Amino acid sequence: MKLPTLTHLQFLILDIVGGAEMSGRDLREKLRARGVRKTGPAFYQLMARLEDAGFVKGWYDQKIIDGQIIKERRYRILGAGAKARENTLDFYRQRELNSGRLEGEVSLG
Known about the structure:
single chain, Arc Repressor Mutant, subunit A, 3-stranded antiparallel beta sheet, 3 strands
């Protein structure tokens, strides 16, 4: 089976977003809850790379809060992102099924 094309962090982001639409702020909070801390610029660079790869779509949503216009970045997973996420899940599921079944297998992780 081919190695996944996603990094662990990319997989986690796609897994969190799943089938929902999510703001960048909410996504960063969910990452923090899982022990992932990224600065704003690092997070949005990562998300831009996921957008460039065709895994997520991002857009700005404008809201008025206390008389101020606030622009919020929102994301949703695209078909290619869902497929990459599923391929990564399949890889690790298969790895789990095969663990310990092959004699003399050496674990690299």
